[in-house]
């Protein structure tokens, strides 16, 4: 089921970028690790899968079942891939951020009262 | 089959029961000593009552903790546990908790990811940190998983409401 929304939350954006960065090796464990290392924050597997599910319903990513390995207790992996609409949403979010950040000059970084 | 013979099991159990009795007597004697020596110096009845109220649960707590500790360290229990528990697999209680909150479709993938991670932490830091890590993941995952379900139910309710209004 697709949700008609192109809005991208902060965590959704990080997850999408992590999937793009990982390429063909993007599944739950590697995505969580990348988000933790690059994003520098603790990420629970539940929060990650909730976001992945939302992104999939929005049509930004697609998934396919992978192989089962003994170190996973014989359980299968679920690989994710960013779709064209996902890349488009990322570019849009980046554009909005750039446009909004343009008045932010280095001198104002400290925050004027 | 357990390697402990019947006589092996009997001796620690007897020691364990004796220790409980000793602790109970000791705890009571401390309470009596406390009431006889310290409380008479306190003139106010409120203070007496308050100290009694604080001391009694504390005594039970200390005795309970000691008994629990001794029970855990009993040779027969240690032996039985080492036979039954497999440290290479994630804690069963944690897995069950996730089973409770996960959707059927995600169950295999999430539990697989967690097991893979658990084994990595186990190899790097040992069984206790691995178990702590696993439970941290479980408890921090429950909130988002409940939220996800609520949102789904909310969406169903919203569709129902729309259908009711337009029919």
Instruction: Estimate what percentage of residues of chain A fall within beta strands.
Output: 5-15%
- Percent helix among the residues of chain A? 40-55%
Q: Count all strands of chain A and give the number.
A: 2
Q: What is the multimeric organization of the chains shown?
A: heterodimer
Cα radius of gyration of chain A in angstroms: 17 Å
Helix content of chain B: over 70%
Shape of chain B: elongated
Structural class estimated from helices and strands of chain B: mainly alpha
Largest sheet of chain B: none
How far apart the termini of chain A lie comes to 47 Å
User: How does the helix and strand content of chain A classify structurally?
Assistant: alpha+beta
Largest sheet of chain A: 2 strands, antiparallel
* Largest interface (C-beta under 8 Å): A-B, 21 and 23 residues
Write down the Rg of chain B. Answer: 26 Å
Query: What is the number of E strands of chain B?
Result: 0
User: If you average the pLDDT of chain A, what whole number results?
Assistant: 86
With strands numbered from the N-terminus, the spatial order across the biggest sheet of chain A is 1-2
